[in-house]
Amino acid sequence: MGDEIELFRSFISQKGLRNTPEREVIIREIFSTHDHFDVDDLYLRMLGKGSKVSKASIYRNIPLIMECGLIKEVWHENGHMHYEHIYGHGHHCHLRCIQCGKVIEFVDRHLRQIEKRLSKEYDFKIIDHNLDITGYCSDCKNGINV
Amino acid sequence: MGDEIELFRSFISQKGLRNTPEREVIIREIFSTHDHFDVDDLYLRMLGKGSKVSKASIYRNIPLIMECGLIKEVWHENGHMHYEHIYGHGHHCHLRCIQCGKVIEFVDRHLRQIEKRLSKEYDFKIIDHNLDITGYCSDCKNGINV
DNA sequence: TTTACTGCAAAAGGTTTGCATGGGT
DNA sequence: ACCCATGCAAACCTTTTGCAGTAAA
């Protein structure tokens, strides 16, 4: 905890950019919960804590925070992008309930093998993968009609 | 070929909706190539062939064509959604080059096993999955700096 | 004849950007 | 002192929607 800030500071100075309180507030808020988030979530959470950081600053900084490796885009839903922080977590993927919106994270080591095979077969340098599985969670399964 | 139209016709009438020339033009255009597409692509392709179908009609019909199982959303890029037609193809996933945009489709039977395990472990009824792998294709690999 | 579907243009909603001010380095 | 980053508001772009006319059924 707090490492995120250190990592970001060195990333920023390495790029010749400037560290600002706004940037640190954004990163602290992102890492203050384990949840996935979207820009509006984040903005409202920060606003609720008395922060005056604007949405424009959030939008302007997200690409930087992604480039630094602290967060990544995970899925696009209801017209806007959703993110998660990835620093300090092992790589994982998601089961998403299309009825109640619940998200279950899982890790599967077989994915690494699949990647290895693909990488060799197609001579492809893999940077990231995102396995997004959708369906009905245990609570919602019984409500399916058909 | 042409089956898509038949499938859509019965889907439409089953729902008590109406079949229209516009809808058939859209579906024919979608299935006229193997490529992934976005709304603007599709609109311009149709326009280039003299069609007068509006973008609004494309937007209004896409949810219906998805529900019918002919197409699905595959990824969100550059601010808009991309689709592919899935009828007549086996289920597959994508390798996408983040430099040149090339898309390689692949099938991996191990994914089914992963799904089976997840389904049991989390008591989750899986409806769809989307494995989106990004990186550098063989042509672009050499241009990586670092 | 009913009412779903269409084209058009306006609106909506998320994201980006121009500009003047403020603040790291 | 330089010039990057910020807040604000306007612009932008994709997608949605209201409306009046058209055409499946």
List keywords for this structure.
homodimer, 146 residues, alpha+beta, Arc Repressor Mutant, subunit A, Dna Ligase, domain 1, 2 domains, two-stranded antiparallel sheet, 5 strands, globular, DNA-binding
How does the SSE layout of this entry go?
2 copies of one chain form a homodimer.
Chain A: H1 3-14, H2 21-30, H3 39-48, H4 55-67, E1 71-77, E2 80-85, E3 93-97, E4 103-106, H5 110-122, E5 125-136, H6 138-141
Parallel strand pairs in A: 3-5
Antiparallel strand pairs in A: 1-2, 3-4
The first copy, chain A, binds a DNA duplex (25 and 25 nucleotides) through residues 13, 16-20, 22-23, 39-40, 52-57, 59-61, 79-81.
Number of helices of chain A: 6
Major β-sheet annotation of chain A: 3 strands, mixed
CATH C-level of the largest domain in chain A:
Mainly Alpha
CATH architecture verdict of the largest domain in chain A: Orthogonal Bundle
- Average pLDDT of chain A works out at 92
Task: Let me know the number of strands of chain A.
Answer: 5
Shape descriptor of chain A reads: globular
| Structural class by secondary-structure content of chain A | alpha+beta
Amount of beta strand of chain A: 15-25%
Report on this structure:
Two copies of one chain form a homodimer. By secondary structure, the first copy, chain A, is α+β, with helices and mostly antiparallel strands. In chain A, 42% of the residues lie in helices and 23% in strands. Chain A folds into two domains: 3-85, Arc Repressor Mutant, subunit A (Orthogonal Bundle); 93-143, Ferric-uptake regulator, C-terminal dimerisarion domain (Dna Ligase, domain 1, 2-Layer Sandwich). In chain A, the strands form two sheets. Chain A has a three-stranded mixed beta sheet. In chain A, helix 2 crosses helix 4. Chain A binds chain B through residues 76, 81, 95, 97-98, 104, 106, 108, 110-111, 113-115, 117-118, 121-138, 141, 144, and chain B through 76, 81, 95, 97-98, 104, 106, 108, 110-111, 113-115, 117-118, 121-138, 141, 144. Strand 5 of chain A pairs antiparallel with strand 5 of chain B, so a sheet runs across the interface. The structure holds a DNA duplex (25 and 25 nucleotides).
